[in-house]
TrEMBL record:
It comes from Streptomyces tateyamensis. Residues 4-123 form the VOC domain. Gene3D superfamilies: 2,3-Dihydroxybiphenyl 1,2-Dioxygenase, domain 1. Signal peptide: none annotated. This is Glyoxalase.
Length: 131
């Protein structure tokens, strides 16, 4: 058997709220809660299992990147704009209100309700020369 990433846990203040937020942007479904998790499954079989952390406990923010088609990018970007989210062309949040065109595609960064960095990109890194 080859090694595959099956799932990862995404810590949240409210597991349902955060799962539905991301699922809504990506055009996916948040699954039924099982145990402490609310899953969001991606097309390649990797699930993001959102787990609530009790209030007051710190949550280390993470970065999650999603490779999407051009049509999926357009739809998700429209949802980002409709939600009034601040978005950026870079992971350091120095270029607000812009998207990037790295690797011959498009990319955008935004934050989820906890502050996790979310990235959408239409071409994987290294597709073309870094531009």
């Amino acid at each position: 058997m080859s090694v595959e990433l099956n799932h990862t846990i995404v810590f949240a203040r409210n597991n349902r709220e955060s799962a539905e937020f991301l699922a809504g942007i990506l055009g996916l479904e948040a699954g039924a809660e099982w145990g402490p998790f609310v899953p969001v499954a991606t097309a390649n079989g990797v699930a993001l299992d959102f787990a609530s952390v009790p209030g007051g406990q710190p949550i280390a923010t993470q970065h999650y990147a999603f490779l999407v088609s051009d049509a999926e990018f357009d739809a998700a970007f429209r949802r980002i704009e409709e939600a009034g989210l601040t978005y950026y062309a870079d992971p350091f949040m120095r270029q607000p209100g812009e998207i990037n065109h790295h690797h011959g595609g498009r990319g955008v960064y935004f934050q989820d309700p906890v502050g996790h960095g979310m990235e959408l990109l239409t071409r994987p890194y290294g597709s073309l020369s870094d531009s």
